[in-house]
Design brief:
By secondary structure, this protein is mainly beta. The protein has helices at about 200-205, 225-230, and strands at about 35-45, 55-60, 60-65, 70-75, 80-85, 85-90, 100-105, 110-115, 120-130, 135, 140-145, 150-155, 165-170, 180-190, 190-200, 235-240, 250-265, 275-285, 290-305, 310, 315, 320-330, 335-350, 360-370, 375-390, 395-410, 415-430, 430-445, 460-465, 470-475, 480-485, 490, 495-500, 505-510, 510-520, 525-540, 545-550, 555-565. The two termini are about 20 Å apart.
Length: about 575
């Protein structure tokens, strides 16, 4: 790596499960003034035979959309808005019961179309929730069963509670794990009701769920907080970062293809009829360079209310707590690859066969394109936290604690490290934003048993003053090489001292190294001196930090770099 002496100073909101886009339907009042543009509305995510509910508005257009596909021709240029509403299923579809509610992924979709232009408004319904879903009131109390899984719940009298329905609640005092249960019985007791409950999996309450949607409590019959907590327990996302992603290609595909009707024949003389069909049922996992799977899960913990702070006429609640957090990721660092497994199904009828007219067969197959090269990482952290606001509703909090991290690379190297982390974050309902975060090594990185030896210099390093990022690799045992991942500059200025992609050798090993260090005239962007073997040392306490110091007969200076950990 080359370095420079300092010369010149240099959420969302979660997709509240309420929206989704719908496709055009029956025409509503209003006749569009003729124009030259074409607008198409497409809505997906509903079971076959169910109609979306949406309204399309635009220049001279206001119509109800109740079909999945609609095209409007010769409309005026301008801004078109598709507003989508939740719908209830009119009949059962497999696990989906009649009267279930389908929630749109996005409530509004906006399109601007130019004169003589063409555009499409695309919407989807995400989660489908079972009928009779009711949020438990704050006054609900456990009458029988463990607080973590009550069997009888006392609630105020209401017609919303019916046998066969579902009741949910987020974690709170008296219900440490919340409630996600089916109502088995409803009976009066005093001035309220006693609900008999049976715990159910989230798949029974949400028989269909699109990962791009998130259930949110927006009313008595929407999906309450406990269901959100259950869904968040599987908090994984797929990142598609590859530059060559095939349009429409999903990381996981399941389906049927190559359906064929083959060799149909019949004979009026012999009465023989023959017919054969074939189809491939497959599962395909694919990844482009940079694609990956990231998971975050909160295993368990407790949150306790703190003192209420006065702020003028307002009172601000506080809280504190402790939590165990798990993280894992798998990122494709090599070329594109795909793994496919499936079975070829063949069936037919032939009245001329001696062993019977009907026949069927199933032949398994598998196919691999390229090969996976995954960077794997996992960590477990004990997080202590304190904050202001209401947890999981609206708050700002500070977290800190120890974290044990494990990393493995396709070349067989793997390592472990213990570090201290701290993080400022804000949350609104089920969405969390990280405001600031840092990790300070306490021990490691150290090689793990059965892994290739990991030298602490191997990895990505970024200059603390904004000068750029290097990647240090070990092409052969004991031989290191640095590659500029970005343009290396003087304190983040426009003076580039090493362009991205530049490589050079790193000498030394096991904590002490040497590579070039240079001094530059920033105004003229010219090199004025260089130490070809500047000293590079890894901090013994903070193992994720480098100290780079160069010295010549007339000049000296140092810079620091920190390890990049995504």
């Amino acid at each position: 790596m080359l370095r420079v002496a300092r010369r010149s100073p240099g959420v969302l909101a979660l997709l509240l499960l309420v929206p989704l886009v719908a496709a055009p339907a029956s025409a509503a009042p209003g006749t569009a003034t003729r124009g030259t543009a074409t607008v198409t509305v497409r809505i997906g995510g509903l079971p076959k035979g169910e109609r979306p509910a949406a309204t399309l508005r635009g220049p001279g257009v206001r119509r109800t959309v109740a079909r999945r596909d609609t095209t409007l021709r010769r409309v005026r240029a301008g801004r078109y808005v598709l507003t989508v509403r939740s719908v209830r299923t009119r009949r059962a579809h497999g696990r989906i019961r009649r009267g279930a509610t389908a929630h749109p992924v996005a409530r509004r979709v906006v399109l601007r179309v130019a004169a003589k232009g063409r555009g499409a408004l695309r919407a989807r319904y995400g989660a489908i929730t079972a009928p009779g879903l009711v949020a438990a009131p704050r006054s609900a109390t456990v009458v029988a069963g463990a607080p973590s899984e009550p069997s009888v719940l006392a609630v105020p009298r209401s017609s919303a509670y019916r046998p066969g329905g579902y009741v949910t609640s987020g974690p709170r005092a008296g219900l440490p794990a919340g409630v996600l249960a089916r109502i088995t019985s409803v009976r009066r007791a005093g001035g309220g009701l006693r609900l008999g409950l049976r715990a159910v999996p989230v798949t029974e309450v949400v028989p269909e769920y699109d990962g791009t949607a998130a259930a949110v409590a927006t009313g008595r019959r929407a999906v309450p907080r406990a269901l959100l907590d259950q869904i968040k327990a599987f908090n994984c996302r797929v990142d598609r970062r590859g530059a060559t992603v095939v349009a429409g290609r999903r990381p996981i595909e399941v389906g049927v293809r190559d359906f064929r009707l083959e060799a149909p024949s019949w004979s009026a003389v012999s009465g023989r009829v023959a017919l054969r069909t074939r189809a491939d049922l497959f599962v395909r996992l694919s990844a482009e360079p940079g694609d990956g799977l990231r998971c975050n899960e909160r295993v368990g913990g407790e949150t306790f209310p703190g003192p209420t702070l006065p702020a003028g006429p307002f009172l601000i609640p506080t809280f504190w707590g402790v939590e165990v957090q798990l993280k894992a990721s798998a990122l494709q660092s090599g070329a594109a690859f795909a793994v496919e497994q499936g079975v070829r199904l063949e069936a037919g009828v032939d009245t001329g066969r001696a062993d019977g007219p009907f026949h069927a067969s199933a032949t398994p197959f598998d196919h691999v394109e390229g090969r996976p090269a995954l960077d794997l990482s996992a960590s477990v952290a004990l997080a202590f936290r304190a904050g202001v606001g209401v947890p999981r509703v609206a708050s700002i909090r500070y977290e800190w604690g120890p974290e044990l991290a494990l990393d493995a690379r396709p070349d067989g190297q793997c390592e472990a490290s213990l570090r201290l982390f701290d993080r400022f974050s804000a949350e609104m309902l089920v969405r969390t934003w990280t405001l600031a975060s840092a990790r300070r090594p306490l021990l490691g990185p150290v090689a793990l048993p059965g892994c290739a030896t990991v030298d602490p210099i191997v990895g990505d390093w970024r200059f603390d003053d904004g000068g750029g990022t290097y990647r240090v690799t070990e092409p052969s045992p004991g031989s290191f090489q640095a590659t500029a991942l970005t343009d290396i500059t003087v304190d983040g200025t426009s003076c580039v001292v090493r362009p991205a992609g530049t490589t050079f050798p790193v000498e030394g090993g096991r904590g002490t190294y040497a590579w070039p260090f240079s001094w530059w005239d920033v105004d003229a962007c010219t090199k004025v001196d260089e130490d070809p073997r500047a000293t590079v040392t890894i901090d013994r306490l903070f193992r994720d930090r480098l100290r780079l110091c160069g010295r010549t007969a007339t000049r000296s200076g140092c810079d620091t770099l920190s390890r990049v950990r995504e």
